[in-house]
Design a protein that fits this description.
Layout lengths: L8 E4 L17 E5 L3 H11 L5 E5 L2 H10 L4 E5 L7 H11 L5 E5 L5 H4 L8 E4 L4 H19 L12 E3 L2 E4 L4 E4 L2 E3 L3 H12 L4 E3 H9 L7 H15 L9 E4 L3 E4 L4 E2 L7
Parallel strand pairs: 2-3, 2-4, 4-5, 5-6
Antiparallel strand pairs: 1-3, 7-8, 7-14, 8-9, 9-10, 11-13, 12-13
Helix pairs in contact: 1-5, 2-3, 6-7, 6-8, 7-8
This protein binds calcium ion.
Length: 271
């Protein structure tokens, strides 16, 4: 049996085309869109091109897997159901290699959400089809806004780039690394932002809607369960006993707070 050959298309903003083999160097703002439904892919790519330098479309899971793992991307927009490796498989593979890779997952059924939000997947955000293009654009803008904020030279008065310590946890925003004792913890981009935000505001009780606004960066009404699932994943990674969390604790009827004390970490003072 012949395996069908799929082609991914690539065009930069000047409309010139190159072969996929040439797409290996990193660019500031390149989006990989893995979507087998041509109409959706074309429509989404049309709008994403306004937000970035390049959009590369992979039209099946094989091409998606290859491109996702051989180049770096500002964002990967990943359809769940694909010919070949599906979106979850691609997401897991990418995460093993680069935990810090923004991934936006597209699902066709809300019943698939549980899998997307599952502990092992690690997508930063998701949209359920049919979604409005405006909503997609808003999500992508928010992701890029976060990246820009991270890259912008910090205000000298600001302590936002200072590493902080809470118990055995050291959070280093410059390297976007988290150590738990001697062990480095792999967090997704969103998990890192969430933990960093909590640790910089110890004792403060946040409602889920506050966290959506501050960490996700845009109005997300109705997505409060996203916060829960990210917090559960974070707890699984940083808490000694995730079912009895001591760092990020639930404040019943309100939301969450960071219960550990945090202070500036002295990274060089290891003896
Ligand atoms: Ca599909």
């Amino acid at each position: 049996m012949r395996i069908p050959v799929y082609y991914s298309s690539y065009a930069d903003k000047n409309g010139t085309h190159e072969t996929n083999r040439e797409i290996v160097q990193m660019s500031e703002r390149r989006i990989l869109l893995v979507e087998d439904e041509k109409d959706i892919a074309d429509l989404v790519a049309l709008h994403l091109r306004d937000l970035c330098d390049e959009v590369v479309i992979a039209r099946d899971g094989y091409e998606g897997m290859r491109l996702a793992t051989t180049a770096e991307w500002a964002l990967i927009v990943l359809d769940l159901r694909l010919p070949g490796p599906d979106g979850l498989e691609i997401c897991r593979t990418v995460r093993r290699e680069r935990s810090y890779q923004p991934i936006l997952m597209l699902t066709s059924k809300s019943s698939e959400l549980d899998r997307v939000l599952g502990l092992e997947t690690g997508a930063d955000d998701y949209l359920t089809k049919p979604f409005s293009v405006l909503e997609l654009v808003a999500r992508v803008r928010a992701i890029f806004r976060r990246i820009r904020n991270m890259q912008r030279n910090p205000d000298p008065e600001s302590t936002a780039d200072t590493a902080i310590q809470a118990g055995d946890l050291i959070i280093d925003p410059k390297r976007r690394e988290v150590m738990l004792g001697p062990r480095q913890i792999e967090l997704t981009a969103r998990e890192f932002d969430l933990l960093d935000y909590f640790a910089r505001n110890p004792g403060h009780v946040f409602r889920r809607a506050d966290l959506l606004d501050s960490v996700w960066g845009y109005g997300h009404e109705g997505y409060e369960h996203t916060v829960n699932s990210h917090i559960n994943r974070l707890r699984a990674k940083i808490e000694t006993n995730p079912s009895k969390p001591e760092m990020i604790v639930t404040v019943w009827g309100v939301g969450y707070k960071f219960a550990a004390e945090s202070k500036p970490a002295h990274m060089a003072s290891t003896t």
